[in-house]
C-alpha cells in the first residue's frame, strides 16, 4: 500500500528528467511531453532562462514576507498589466488561490453574493473554487457547498439573460474550458455577457489559469473576444514550471482590497517573481506569440491530414487543442504513452494537446505520426 493518499489516478511511469519537449523515465525511455505538466511548462522542461532565474534569485533571496516592500512584485505586476486595461495585481501560489482572491474581491467590491458560473467549467479544488466549478465529479461528497454560485449552461445566452437579477455580483468563466472538454466561448455568448455586465454593473471574472500567458497565441485569450474582464486569474503557465498564481484587476477595484483584507505567506515571494518575470520575458514578445500562432496552424493542418472528418472534431486555439472523439479516449491516451507520446484527457472523450509553447515543427510531426496509427485503429474498432 502506498504512503500517499489515493486522490490521483497515477499512470505507472516515473519521469526522472526532461529537456524541452522531451522527458525520460527511470528505464531510459523517452517521451514527447504534450501535457507540459498541464499547460504549466510554457518554455518546456529545464529551459536555461528558467534554470538561471532560479539559481540567481535563490542565491540572493528566496523568501521575505509581504510585511516588506517588493519591487519584484511591482515589476511582474507591471509586465502583466502593460498594454491592457488592468491596473493592479495580487500574487499567490496556485490557480485555486487566484480564484479565491477573485471571488472575495468581487463580493467585497459589490457587496453582493451571487456569482454565475457555467457547466463543465473548472476553477480549482478549494472550497470556493470547487463550489464555482460546474462539474459534479469535482464536488461529489463534499457538500454542502457555498451557495454563492449559480451554474448555468455554457454558451446559452437565453439562460443567462433569464438568470441575471440584482443579486448578481459577477459572472465567472473560462474563454476555453480546458478541463471540461476544450469548449470555446461563442462570439454570440461573449456579446451577451458583455452587454449584461455593462447594463447591470456586473463584474466579469475571467479564469485564464489555463488559457493565459501565450497559450492561445495572444498574451491572454480574452484579447481574441470582445470581453473586457474586470478580474483575470492566472497560474499554470505563468511560472514556467514554478508554482505561482496571480489575480489582476482594474483600477476601480483597488479600494476594495485594502491592508488586512486578503493575503498569503508564500504568495509573491522573490523566487516566484523572478521565475515568472523570466517566463514573461520570453513569452510576452510579439515574435514569440506570432510563432505560437504559426505552430498552432501547423499542428492543426497536420492533424487534419490524419483525422477523418466525420469521426473527430478539432477544438481550441493556439497550443490548447482538443480532438473530440466519438468514444472515450482513455485507451488512446494510454497507447500514445506506450508509443512515446504523453497526452491528457479533457472530459471523457476529448484528447487534449498542450505542448510547450517552444515545441518544434519536427516534434509536432512526430507527435501526429504517433497519433495517426492510434486514431485510425480506434476508428475501425
Ligand atoms: C488548473 C486550473 C485551475 C486550478 O489551478 P490549481 O493551480 O490546480 O489550483 C483553475 N482554473 C482553471 C481554468 C484551470 O485550468
TrEMBL record:
GO terms for molecular function: N2-acetyl-L-ornithine:2-oxoglutarate 5-aminotransferase activity. It catalyses: N(2)-acetyl-L-ornithine + 2-oxoglutarate = N-acetyl-L-glutamate 5-semialdehyde + L-glutamate. CDD domains: OAT_like. N(2)-acetyl-L-ornithine binds at residues 125, 264. The modification N6-(pyridoxal phosphate)lysine is found at residue 236. Its cofactor is pyridoxal 5'-phosphate. PANTHER family: ACETYLORNITHINE AMINOTRANSFERASE, MITOCHONDRIAL, AMINOTRANSFERASE CLASS III. HAMAP family: ArgD_aminotrans_3 (MF_01107). May also have succinyldiaminopimelate aminotransferase activity, thus carrying out the corresponding step in lysine biosynthesis. Belongs to the class-III pyridoxal-phosphate-dependent aminotransferase family. ArgD subfamily. This is Acetylornithine aminotransferase. The gene is argD.
Amino acid at each position: 500500500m502506498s504512503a500517499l493518499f489515493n486522490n490521483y489516478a497515477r499512470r505507472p511511469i516515473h519521469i526522472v528528467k526532461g529537456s524541452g519537449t522531451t522527458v525520460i523515465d527511470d528505464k531510459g525511455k523517452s517521451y514527447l511531453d504534450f501535457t507540459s505538466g498541464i499547460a504549466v511548462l510554457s518554455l518546456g522542461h529545464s529551459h536555461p532562462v528558467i534554470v538561471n532565474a532560479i539559481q540567481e534569485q535563490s542565491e540572493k533571496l528566496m523568501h521575505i514576507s509581504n510585511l516588506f516592500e517588493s519591487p519584484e512584485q511591482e515589476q511582474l505586476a507591471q509586465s502583466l498589466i502593460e498594454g491592457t486595461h488592468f491596473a493592479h495585481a495580487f500574487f499567490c501560489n496556485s490557480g485555486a488561490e487566484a480564484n479565491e482572491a477573485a471571488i472575495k474581491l468581487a463580493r467585497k467590491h459589490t457587496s453582493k453574493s451571487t456569482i454565475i458560473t457555467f457547466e463543465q467549467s473548472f476553477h480549482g479544488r478549494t472550497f470556493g473554487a470547487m463550489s464555482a466549478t460546474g462539474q459534479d465529479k469535482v464536488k461529489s461528497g463534499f457538500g454542502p457547498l457555498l451557495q454563492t454560485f449559480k451554474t448555468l449552461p455554457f454558451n446559452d445566452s437565453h439562460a443567462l439573460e433569464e438568470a441575471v437579477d440584482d443579486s448578481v455580483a459577477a459572472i465567472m468563466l473560462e474563454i476555453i474550458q480546458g478541463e471540461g472538454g476544450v469548449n470555446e466561448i461563442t462570439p454570440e455568448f461573449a456579446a451577451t455577457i458583455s452587454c449584461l455586465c455593462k447594463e447591470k454593473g456586473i463584474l466579469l471574472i475571467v479564469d485564464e489559469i489555463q488559457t493565459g500567458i501565450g497559450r492561445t497565441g495572444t498574451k491572454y485569450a480574452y484579447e481574441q473576444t470582445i470581453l473586457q474582464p474586470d478580474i483575470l486569474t492566472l497560474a499554470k503557465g505563468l511560472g514556467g514550471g514554478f508554482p505561482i498564481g496571480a489575480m489582476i484587476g482594474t483600477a476601480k477595484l483597488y479600494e476594495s482590497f485594502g491592508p488586512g483584507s486578503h493575503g498569503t505567506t508564500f504568495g509573491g515571494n522573490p523566487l516566484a517573481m523572478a521565475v515568472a518575470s523570466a517566463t514573461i520575458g520570453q513569452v510576452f514578445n510579439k515574435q514569440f506569440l506570432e510563432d505560437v500562432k504559426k505552430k498552432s496552424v501547423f499542428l492543426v493542418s497536420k492533424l487534419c491530414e490524419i483525422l477523418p472528418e466525420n469521426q473527430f472534431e478539432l477544438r481550441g486555439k493556439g497550443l490548447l487543442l482538443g480532438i473530440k472523439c466519438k468514444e472515450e479516449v482513455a485507451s488512446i491516451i494510454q497507447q500514445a504513452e506506450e508509443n512515446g507520446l504523453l497526452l491528457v484527457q479533457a472530459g471523457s472523450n476529448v484528447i487534449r494537446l498542450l505542448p510547450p509553447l517552444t515545441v518544434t515543427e519536427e516534434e509536432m510531426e512526430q507527435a501526429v505520426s504517433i497519433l495517426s496509427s492510434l486514431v485510425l485503429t480506434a476508428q475501425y474498432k
